């Protein structure tokens, strides 16, 4: 039987970021942190045309700057200097620029493999231990923490368990934590594409009668595509040969980057809004996609989870109570409630508004985009949401 102070179930980007945010104070306080992850981190970063990527908001960049990691991440982070929002077949469009907002970039696009590598290398193995590859099969609540049963038949006790094992968390269900689940009836087709013209740091949000799409700038002149369609149509698009797929993508996106001439591996992800009905219990926190999983088109999911992570770390370090104290964990949730409600609501409403082909709503959407481009207060508000600064004072 082994015991640690903090067990993080899920050593992905959220779990590793929490470990990084806590490790300095943990070293001083004598805390031991254990990351439990089914997939062992790679031995080194390997560039790949098909790598999955994450859009980090300006606010998230500031978080990693404070954690001392940004200079490393920035080596392969592509700045988003402009965001172009348009509605196919309609005149209205909105443009956001980093220069107008007084920031070096509205956000950055980073390959997940590179971000993970930067995080894992920054962890102090004297404070943060790994159980990987390993999986927690059961969790038992104790008076002073949790007992975790692992798939190698070992057990691990902890003062505080962090459940960060993803949106389809089986442990969340096992613990009887319900979820609010709203299906969008859509799937996101994810792929990397190359275009004839350089993206010059531009990100594109394009809304069509068939669903929204985003094209985000990547290093090496690539773009990350997130194309939302009905689940059946997304399956059809994935099955097309490269030429026919690029033809349909070109028709939907247009020629703002010239001809699209290469697409990598295509992956589909069914889309739903998932919110855990409980995020804290005594000695337990639900974090990341296990707490809330959002539609990707607004680019808010990981950035909200990172803000949750930093708020949790700050609340734990500010508290004088024992690790896992329920009042402390409730204080964390109260601290983040407004941010979560605003971000989840913003993401859901943008998804619904820009996924409809109803004529009246589509016309209102077009007027909204036009107003966004000509009304500075509205544009400023929208830009702050996109930059992950929505609940911060101006």
Automatic annotation (TrEMBL):
Residues 5-337 form the FAD-binding domain. The keyword Electron transport does not apply. Pathway: Cofactor biosynthesis; ubiquinone biosynthesis. Its cofactor is FAD. Belongs to the UbiH/COQ6 family. PANTHER family: 2-OCTAPRENYL-6-METHOXYPHENOL HYDROXYLASE, UBIQUINONE BIOSYNTHESIS MONOOXYGENASE COQ6, MITOCHONDRIAL. This is 2-octaprenyl-6-methoxyphenyl hydroxylase. It comes from Pseudomonas taeanensis MS-3. The lineage of its organism: Bacteria, Pseudomonadati, Pseudomonadota, Gammaproteobacteria, Pseudomonadales.
């Amino acid at each position: 039987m082994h015991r640690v102070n903090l067990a993080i179930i899920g050593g992905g980007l959220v779990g590793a970021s929490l470990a990084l945010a806590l490790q300095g104070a943990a070293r001083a306080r004598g805390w031991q942190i254990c990351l439990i992850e089914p997939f062992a981190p790679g031995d080194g970063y390997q560039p790949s045309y098909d790598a999955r990527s994450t859009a980090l908001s300006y606010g998230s960049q500031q978080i990693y700057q404070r954690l001392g990691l940004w200079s490393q991440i920035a080596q392969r982070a592509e700045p988003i200097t402009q965001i172009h929002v348009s509605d196919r077949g309609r005149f209205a469009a909105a443009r956001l620029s980093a220069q107008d907002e007084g920031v070096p970039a509205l956000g950055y696009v980073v390959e997940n493999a590179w971000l993970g590598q930067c995080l894992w290398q920054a962890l102090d193995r004297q404070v943060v231990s790994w159980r990987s590859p390993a999986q927690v099969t059961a969790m038992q609540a104790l008076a002073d923490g949790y007992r975790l049963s692992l798939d190698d038949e070992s057990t691990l006790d902890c003062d505080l368990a962090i459940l960060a094992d993803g949106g389809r968390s089986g442990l969340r269900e096992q613990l009887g934590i319900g979820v609010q689940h709203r299906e969008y009836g859509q799937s996101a087709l994810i792929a990397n594409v190359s275009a004839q013209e350089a993206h010059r740091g531009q990100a594109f949000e394009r809304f069509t009668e068939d669903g929204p799409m985003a094209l985000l700038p990547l290093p090496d002149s690539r773009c990350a595509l997130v194309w939302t369609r009905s689940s059946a149509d997304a399956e059809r698009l994935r099955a097309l040969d490269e030429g026919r797929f690029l033809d349909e993508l070109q028709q939907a996106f247009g020629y703002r980057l010239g001809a699209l001439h290469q697409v990598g591996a295509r992956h589909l992800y069914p889309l739903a809004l998932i919110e855990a009905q409980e995020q804290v219990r005594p000695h337990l926190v639900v974090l990341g996609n296990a707490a809330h999983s959002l539609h990707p088109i607004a680019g808010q999911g990981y950035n909200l989870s990172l803000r949750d992570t930093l708020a949790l770390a700050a609340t734990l370090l500010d508290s004088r109570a024992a690790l896992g104290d329920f009042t402390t964990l409730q204080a964390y949730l109260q601290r983040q409630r407004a941010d979560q409600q605003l971000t989840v609501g913003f993401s859901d409403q943008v998804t619904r508004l820009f996924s409809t082909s109803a004529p009246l709503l589509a016309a209102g959407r077009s007027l909204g985009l036009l107003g966004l481009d000509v009304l500075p207060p509205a544009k400023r508000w929208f830009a702050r949401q996109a930059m992950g600064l929505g609940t911060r004072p101006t």
